[in-house]
Queue: 2 jobs
Job 1
Amino acid sequence: MDDSEATSLEQIRAFLAGSDPVEFTGQGREEIYTWVEKTLVRLQYSGLDRGGKGLVRRYLGRMTGLSRAQVTRLIAGYRRTGRVIAVAYQRRKFATQYASSDLDLLAYVDKAHGNLSGPATKRILEREYSEYGQAAYQRLSGISVAHLYRLRNSAAYRKRNTSYQPTRPTPIRIGERRKPQPHGWPGYLRIDTVHQGDQDGRKGLYHINAVDQVTQWEIVAATPQISELWLLPVLEAMLGQFPFVIRGFHSDNGSEFINYSVARLLEKLLIEQTKSRAHHTGDNGLVESKNGAIIRKHIGFGYIDAQHAEAVDHFHRQHLNPYVNFHRPCAVPKIITEANGKRRRVYLRWATPFELLQEAAHCEKLLRPGVTLDTLTETARAQSDTEAALAMQRAKRQLLVRVGKRGA
């Protein structure tokens, strides 16, 4: 900036009277401060009267863009020292109590003991100095547990001792982890998913299998994906296909069912949600056995593209589900308690899910609104068991040809 013409107070007063704004285009704070110092020397600031000093202050503020308080500070420094110098910022620092050698020693102890807790490590450091006379531990023997953790979290320590921990699972407060207790009432479902394979990086469709614990009434559906967008409508449709009111919903701990969207759906329908317990592999054994006996037996293990999910779901709804529930007998378990208190299941009887539903106490009162026992009986007697099986097999062959599983 060139302001060599402003050498008198009259010129400065005329300059300040102008209306054009002025911007100092210096390269930084040092250049601004250098210009301020030269201007104060050129105008002999110390010898000016009160009015002249105020004029110079306004001039410096206009030219540099600094605030009135900052200009005052610069002038005060100039009057004390005769210079206008940028003072470097002095950050307050605390004294360092533990040296680099202490970090090396702490990392050495942690490696030797396998990274114990802070209190345990502190006690070891105290014992090394007080009981075993190791002078190198003198400073570390007085360290607090909190500061010990601070040192462990520092970058310098992590360079000396890096430890890795596996990802810790986050508990999800959805569903109660216990085995359902239906007490002989239908409406307590066991549910699971069955994946129909992968091919060339493409996911196949998914079957959703739901089985009632008491009557073994089974509803199977198909969906292209098990994401929230696809799964929730399928679950609502499945729950509506059961002839009785649903009271319980039990699944394993998979995220397709243990999530807030499914929890909200079940809460809206007043359905109790439970999930399998740890170390109890048989908690969801009923539906898992049906996965093999029904879905794998009739659909197989081969890949079916997700685009065929609608056709497969139509087959389940119109053919497989009616056949399974009205015409396919299933084993009825009976619990026998031995003399030593051990319980075991025996299968002495076979019956269809519809027959088991009819045997339930007050079965008509358990039915959903709009469903009557006469309607279910009419559906069961529309075809014989073998006729229903043959019709289901014909529909299955047509479906498998359509989805490209001719050899199934």
Note: The first helix runs from residue 9 to 17.
Job 2
Amino acid sequence: MQYHFDEIVDRSHTWSIKHDLKEANGKPADILPLWVADMDFRSPDGVREALKQAADHGIFGYSQADGSYFAAIRDWYKKRFGWEWQEEWMICTPGIVFAISAAVQAFTKEGDGILIQPPVYHPFSRAVIRNRRGLVTAPLTLSDGRYRMDLDRVEAAVRGGDVPLMILCNPHNPVGRVWTREELGALEAICERYGVFVISDEIHGDFSWPGHPVTPYASLSGAAAAGSMTATAPSKTFNLAGLSTSNIFIADPDRRRRFQDVLLDIGQENMNRMGLIACRAAYEGGEEWLEELLSYLKGNLDLVRRFTEKGSVPIRLIEPDGTYLAWLDCRGMGMTDEELDGFFSQKARVWLDPGVHSGEEGSGFMRLNLGSPRSIIEEALGRIEAAWEKQNA
């Protein structure tokens, strides 16, 4: 490979949430952090060079993206997803979690119901609850090792007309599903029938495994585009989360104006200059890096799969269609969620994300981030196996 994903980069004392908050979270000093969705790989060379040039220029005043920024993102989505959108649809925001909360305020009122599909990324429920909206759930179903949407439950939840908004995770974090065009089409038919606007979080859209192409929700039809907001960002793809840059697409002019009004209401007018520069550079020149990254991550996933198939520890991998996250079914270990967290953190000294962070439907599961050098993943699996053997000796 041209890129060195095996390199172990020391991230200690860099203000890294992933690496520098061990003590604050009651974790051992030598724990391997594989929890938050933040990779341990250097961003593409072109991104780093663009940031160096901007730093050397030495002026960091108010900035606004020009046509070259939009063109880089437009070309990326057209080439990789076959999705074409209009420049006026796009609004830059400092992160998708921020944008989802702003959209909740823009498109709903206090007391309205908002639908999510747990187990799902926990800021979805937080955005609903902290904005004093009603949390409505249509949990995914797990059968034969595969998660599916419960569309009957979705329809039952929205039929009454008091659920005007749904937050969709596409691809799905944490269970790793890449929803098919047919699944999304069936969901869109329900949402159009009952007037439900969809926020589609597609931050993991660049991570899918062969045979599982990602379909942007807004690309389904003109009606789907008009009835949705698509949230994207370079942060997962190119490991740029700390630069707080996301790109939001809203086709409907009235919805777009309402969203922009909320941004002004909360004082959000300007973007991080370095984030804009990094985003453009990533989409312009990062494709080769991404293809090698996907190949490397597949090797890490294969390693985890072989570990679970070996059966030395009663953990089952929920086979992912996409994302760089492994959703591990640990129910066979016979522990409570608190005991599971203690086993992995204190006995195995491997920091995973507890499944219950994604809702009660995640009870008995743990999420493992594959985005680290392979030697780290190997060591983590070895620690888990050794800790299980010691506990059951």
Note: The chain is about 40% helix and 15% strand.
